[in-house]
Model the fold of this input.
Amino acid sequence: MEGKNKKGTAEDMNSFQKAWEVLFPYLLYYLAYSGAYIMLAFLQEVLLKSGNEVYRRFMTEQASTIAGVMGGLSMMLGILPVLPMLKKELRLRGSMDEGSMDLDRKGLIKELFFTGILACTSSLGLNVLLTLTGFSNTSETYRQVADNQYGVAFAAGLLLYGLVSPLAEEVVFRGVIFNRMRRLYGAWVAIVASGLFFGAFHGNVVQGVYGGCMGILMAYLYDRSARFVIPFFFHMTANLAVYSTAYVAPLQKVFFTPAGCGVLLVMAAGCIVAKEQLRKAEK
Done:
């Protein structure tokens, strides 16, 4: 009965109401994130003016890391008003996909194993492809973002891009927005539309293409598994793979070649096939 009631509610909503239902969580997150960042920036300015010369020099020398930490804290504060929505969406998703949840409990370790390999190969493969084709050089904004990201201290970068960013973005985009789209528009529309929205969120064409492809893949994996941990683990592993590889020159020499790109993408496709075969075998 609950599923029928939810479907009836979706059918009774007009196009504007559906769009608002989907966009409101992002707008709420963006406002909370922006407010938190402004407050942290104001606090930083106060500390700079009141601190001694050694403190000011430290703040200047570590500007990229401090900006990254401020962004990470803002993301965590930004998702706070969205968490009640996440709790509700996960409860609704669980009630509608009890069979899938039970199936995933039995094979969660295998699911995470293939998800991790898929995350590494697809993220690195797509990054290599965008680099080899020269597409990565088409956006000045992207280059500035990349410089800022890799200007952060390595340990801080691992925490920010390997945990904080994936958690905040998965809460908003897969946990809430995708689940709402799925109820209102259907699974495949939600997979594609939420993925493209995730790409557009990054604000430049290079990250837009990369984020859009990754967003569609993460939404697909979430739709098939019905477990929020799957897209979060994928996102975390993909970010760590890309970020860490940038600091390992021997790996770059192997991966950033046409052959390396081809192997990575073939392995990614193989993981998707293997995951589907595993799921069918467990049914």
Remarks:
- The first helix runs from residue 2 to 12.
- DSSP finds 14 helices and no strands in the chain.
- The mean pLDDT is 89.
